Structure formats: C-alpha cells, structure tokens
Amino acid sequence: MPRLETIEEKVKNAIKDQFAFDKEEVYRTDRLDEDLGMDSVDKVEMIMALEDELQIEINDEDTENWKTVQDVIDFGKKKGRKKKKA
Prior knowledge:
Radius of gyration: 13 Å
Order of helices and strands: HHHH
Largest sheet: none
CATH architecture: Orthogonal Bundle
Number of strands: 0
Oligomer: single chain
Distance between the termini: 27 Å
CATH topology: Non-ribosomal Peptide Synthetase Peptidyl Carrier Protein, Chain A
CATH class: Mainly Alpha
C-alpha cells in the first residue's frame, strides 16, 4: 500500500515543483522572500498550487504572516484538521 504524503511533503513539493529553485531541498526554516526569492507573483502561484494540492481554500488574511516554509506547513496542518472536522 503506498504511503500517503504528509502535509509537510505536499507543501515542500508544491514549492519545489512550482518554481525552478537552484536549491535541491526546501527546508522548513527557509524564508520565502530571502532564501527562496519569492516575490508577490510567486506567492500567488504558490497559493494556487497549494489550494490544488491540499484541496483547501486560502485567502489573503491567511497568508499575511507567512514568512517561512514552516509557517506554510503549520497553516496546511491547521486547515487540514478543520477540513476533516467539517
């Protein structure tokens, strides 16, 4: 039976697949702006990819405090738990 991807893996894969980073690995501590070089357009594209990958809706208020990959992972886990309860 195939192993299901974790939220962390899905977030990291969405980031890596969406952008052509020079980095081989995306780390939880990577800052979206400084380390990954994301601009506002990149962030919008990442949000759309995450919405598709995680099957959730993400609004602007949700992303205001996203500074690191860990922030995005934490949001995905929190939103995923809410989705399961619904």
